[in-house]
Specification:
Strands 6-7-8-3-9-10-12-11 form an eight-stranded mixed sheet, with helices on both faces. Strands 2-1-4-5 form a four-stranded antiparallel sheet. The protein contains ten helices and twelve strands. By secondary structure, it is of the alpha/beta class. The protein is 31% helix and 23% strand. The protein starts with 5 loop residues before the first strand and ends in a 7-residue tail after the last strand. The chain binds adenosine-5'-triphosphate (ATP) and magnesium ion.
Length: 322
C-alpha cells in the first residue's frame, strides 16, 4: 500500500449528537485512518457502533464535532465554494434501503439525472439522456428502465438504480452503506460483483460498510473494526482475518465459519458476553472492558491507544504491551 496515494486522511474524528436530558451520544469518538485511492476500505462492527456516522461525517452530511478530514491534501474545513462543489460531485453514497431513497413520483430517468442538473449544468437534454442510458447500461439495465418508476422494480434492480444515480455524476469515491443488506441472498452476490466490476472499470475508491463479515472479507483491501464509536483494529484484509489481535475482533470473527480450524487465533476464541453499552454512557478506559474476558484494572481506567503491531496493522489493546 505504500506506493498508493492517500485520498482521505482522517485524524481523531469525533461526531457527537445531543441526546435527551442534556446528554451526548458519542457516535464517533476519536477515530483516525487513511483511505487510499482505488482501494475498498471495509468498516465492520455491531449495530450502533458508528459505521454510518463515520461515512456520513466523511461526506460532510454531518459537521464533525472535532478532528480533521483531509481530502487530497486539503482540510475539508478550509474548502471554498468550488472545492465544496467538486467534493460533493466526487464523493457519493449508496444506501442500504434502495426503496426508501428513490422518490416514487419520479421516473428512474429523472432520479438518475438529478445530480446532472447540479453538477453538469451545461449538458443538453440529449446529453443527459445519453448519460442516463450509459449509467443504466453500466449497472446492467436497458434504457427502457429510464421511463419506469421505482415501485415497478425488484429490490436488486432498485439497488442498481441507486448505484446508477451515484455514478451519473462520475464520482471517484463512494461510501457503500450496507448496500446489499436489504437484498435476497441470491441477488447480493450480483450487486457485489457489479460494485467490484465498476470499481475496476472506473477506478473508484470505496468505503464499504457492513456487518456481513464474510462479505467484507470478500470485497475489502483493508478493514477497520469499530466498537462503540472507537476504532479497535485496522489493517489489511490478510492480517485482520488471518491474525486479529484485538479480543473484540477475535470475538466478532469467531462467528464466521472458518475453513481452517487450526488458525492459531481460533484456539483462543473469545465469546462476546453481555450487551453493548450505550454510546451515551460508554465505559471509562477501554470501551470494550465491560465485555472483554481479558480486561484488567488498567483497562477500566485507561483508554488504549491504537498502535502498530506489524507493518500496516494497528490495534488498541493494553494486552499488546505484554
Ligand atoms: N442523527 C443522529 N442523532 C442522534 N443520534 C444518532 C444519530 N445518528 C446516529 N446516532 C446514534 O449514534 C450511534 C451510532 O449510530 P450509527 O447509525 O452510526 O451506527 P451503525 O454502526 O451504522 O449501526 P447499524 O449497523 O445499525 O447501521 C447510535 O447510538 C445511534 O443511535
Ligand atoms: Mg448504519
Amino acid at each position: 500500500m505504500e506506493d498508493k496515494k492517500v485520498l482521505f486522511e482522517v485524524k481523531d474524528l469525533k461526531m457527537y449528537f445531543p441526546a435527551r436530558g442534556g446528554k451526548t451520544v458519542k457516535a464517533v469518538d476519536g477515530v483516525s485512518f487513511n483511505i487510499y485511492e482505488g482501494e475498498t476500505f471495509g468498516v465492520v462492527g455491531e449495530s450502533g457502533c458508528g459505521k454510518t456516522t463515520v461515512g456520513r461525517t466523511l461526506l460532510g452530511v454531518y459537521q464533525a464535532t472535532a478532528g480533521d478530514i483531509i481530502y487530497k491534501g486539503k482540510n475539508v474545513r478550509d474548502f471554498n465554494g468550488d472545492d465544496k462543489m467538486s467534493f460533493s460531485k466526487n464523493c457519493q453514497m449508496i444506501f442500504q434501503d434502495p426503496a426508501a431513497c428513490l422518490d416514487p413520483r419520479m421516473s428512474i430517468g429523472t432520479i438518475v439525472s438529478e445530480g446532472l442538473n447540479v453538477h453538469y449544468k451545461s449538458m443538453t437534454r440529449e446529453q443527459k439522456e445519453e448519460r442516463v442510458n450509459q449509467v443504466l447500461s453500466y449497472v446492467g439495465l436497458t434504457s427502457d428502465y429510464a421511463s419506469r418508476f421505482a415501485h415497478e422494480l425488484s429490490g436488486g434492480q432498485r439497488q442498481r438504480i441507486g448505484i446508477a444515480r451515484a455514478l451519473a455524476i462520475e464520482p471517484s469515491f463512494i461510501v457503500c452503506d450496507e448496500p446489499i443488506a436489504a437484498l435476497d441472498v441470491s441477488i447480493q452476490a450480483q450487486v457485489v460483483n457489479l460494485l467490484t466490476r465498476l470499481q475496476k472499470e472506473l477506478g473508484l475508491t470505496y468505503m464499504f460498510i457492513s456487518h456481513d463479515l464474510s462479505m467484507v472479507r470478500h470485497i475489502s483491501d483493508r478493514i477497520a473494526v469499530m466498537y462503540l464509536g472507537s476504532l479497535v483494529e485496522l489493517g489489511d484484509n490478510k492480517s485482520i482475518y488471518g491474525h486479529p489481535v484485538h479480543p473484540y475482533t477475535q470475538a466478532l470473527f469467531s462467528a464466521i465459519p472458518e475453513p481452517d480450524p487450526y488458525h492459531s487465533w481460533l484456539k483462543n476464541r473469545v465469546h462476546l458476553q453481555g450487551e453493548i453499552p450505550s454510546p451515551i454512557n460508554a465505559p471509562a478506559g477501554c470501551k470494550f472492558c465491560t465485555r472483554c474476558p481479558k480486561a484488567t484494572d488498567r483497562c477500566k481506567v485507561e483508554a488504549p491507544a491504537l498502535r502498530e503491531v506489524e507493518p500496516g496493522h494497528y490495534a488498541a489493546c493494553h494486552m499488546l504491551d505484554i
